Amino acid sequence: MRAAKYDIACSQIDIGNAGSPATAKLFSGLLQPDFSTKPEPTFEMKHVADAVVFMANLPLDANVQFMSLMATKAPFIGRG
User: Fold this and answer.
1) Ranges of the chain whose pLDDT falls below 70
2) What is the pLDDT of residues 52-74, one digit of tens each?
3) pTM of the predicted structure, to 2 decimals
4) Facing residues of 78 across strands?
5) Which of 5, 39, 40, 80 is the most exposed place for a label (fewest CB within 10 A)?
6) Residue 16 CB neighbour total at 10 angstroms
7) For 68, phi and psi rounded to 5 degrees?
8) Which helix (H) or strand (E) holds 69?
């Protein structure tokens, strides 16, 4: 069965360090790879909502397959 036959579009959004109660500890600082403690860069949760609305409003002939939303000053993607 092909999803295109039924006009189904799927997207994936990966969200990093959005400011929320769950990420509050990031503001006080976390242990870094160089063993220093620094606050992690974050961004407003509104940007996550804006990204989801953007993807949802695309016409069915266009799609965002993958989107990674992260703080601009994050030191490295996927450092874990």
Assistant:
1) 1-4, 76-80
2) 999 999 988 889 999 999 988 88
3) 0.72
4) none
5) 80
6) 16
7) -110, 120
8) strand 66-69
